[in-house]
Fold:
Amino acid sequence: MRNMPVVGLCAVLSCSLPFAARAQSTAGGVTSVPPSSETVLPFKDFRYTGSVGRTIDESDPPQFPSPVRPAEGAPNIVVILIDDAGYAQFGTFGGAIPTPALDSVAAEGLRYTRFHTTALCSPTRAALLTGRNHHVAGTGIITEAATGYDGYTGIIPRNVGTVAQVLRQHGYATAWFGKNHNTPAWETSQVGPFDRWPSGLGFDYFYGFMGGDMDQWQPILFENHNLVPRSDNPDYIMTTDLVDKASAWLRRTRSIDATKPFFLYMAPGATHAPHHVRPQFVEPFVGKFDEGWDVYRERAFERQKKLGVIPADARLTPRPAELPGWDSLTPDQKRLSARMMEVFAGFTAETDHEMGRLLEVVRSLPDADNTLIFYIVGDNGASAEGTLFGLLNENSYFNGVPEALEDNLRQIDELGGPKHFNHFPAGWAWAMNAPFQWTKQIASHLGGVRNPMAVSWPAKITDHGGVRSQFHHVIDITPTIYEVAGISAPDVLDGVPQRPLDGVSIAYTFDDAVARDRRRSQYFEMFVNRGIYHDGWWAASRTAIPWESGSAKVDPDAAKWELYNLDADYSQ
Structure:
């Protein structure tokens, strides 16, 4: 990463950013509103239009400003965003880990099998919240690696407003729980400034952490702008705490104003490293992964076909030459790697369990049927940042500090506990992304960017258990929310003219399984790993892999390109 070419999107894609954004809007069927029909928000400075005399008796009746209310029938919105998760990880999409909460959303709604992200944390989250491509949202990289080049500052521009800002001005209650990876790293202390914290991005309430990952056992948390004291509960773990706070916020909000719709954004930080988990969730998986990652992929692939979440003629991609085969590992390497996967499986199960507790509260509300739920399984593919043989401390990878197998074996029984910051081997990340090539960070191939999603809305979606195969991207979530809430994206937000949305609503798929794709083009770029999609074709150019040191210079002009017909080759 240290010597990675630091280039703007124009250099990466050999095109101008305005053209790329404009082409995306046209390809996706999104057109900007002409200036003559400017869309404005309902929050306006109050102006009395009557006649004022010397006294009340001589004046027209008062016209006190009334509270803003959303459109009639506007739904509640819940967005759950899992961290660092692959297509073959959750049982709902063929993984070996039972995930009943995700199952429940899919059973009462739809499963999306061609949904995409950006291949990295901050960029996906900025794209999700704004409806614009990650470079347009100033987040072409994680905030900790921001640079002074356009598209890479880690600062969401004022002309790229968030969905929460707009919803709040249309009468929604808004709250964010968990991971905030969209505040510039140099602004995350208690002295702020706070205009780019969740409160400045449109959220009434925030309870969570700053940065890319966090200790699940002893996290550093903020409630709004204030540090949260460390818990004295010996059984404390963060995801449970987040769900408890979200449940309390929901009940409090609805008890005060039962008619006020809500937007709840739950970003738990799991299953990103560190893989911290309570032992009772790991126990069911002991011995389940002893056959290794090659066998896991083969079995997941067959389950995916039976579930109908991949086509019957899909092919399983081969293991990259850069990854070791399971049979090439020593007995000690296998023992440590299998245990790391057991811990990760427990972490996944625990996370879905907690999301299930949140969904129980949502479904207990009187207007539960009018709640649109997005359960997005990953802000990118599963992470290979654990290097080839796994890490006792994920931060050793980022700091270039090698770990010894014998040292890690001595701690094998403590993995997942509070003493370590463990991360599983890259082979398991590749397995979690079956049937696709590669992993997180590699935006050129589907293992880095194709993430499963389930969507439910009992009042509107009637094809329970249906599967949708239209090609879509995380930038399409915000336009979908606007459409179902009866909102037009504003041309001016807080006095700042806004860039047009890059995303297109997916609501047209809710009642039409065979509707023609409305997203016909999309680009992908991360660490100069590049991909571009148009009308079923995908061009890909990979220049780096996650466990490399980043010291090698990359010449993007010399990189090889591959071309795939995804209509005939689902798994690329």
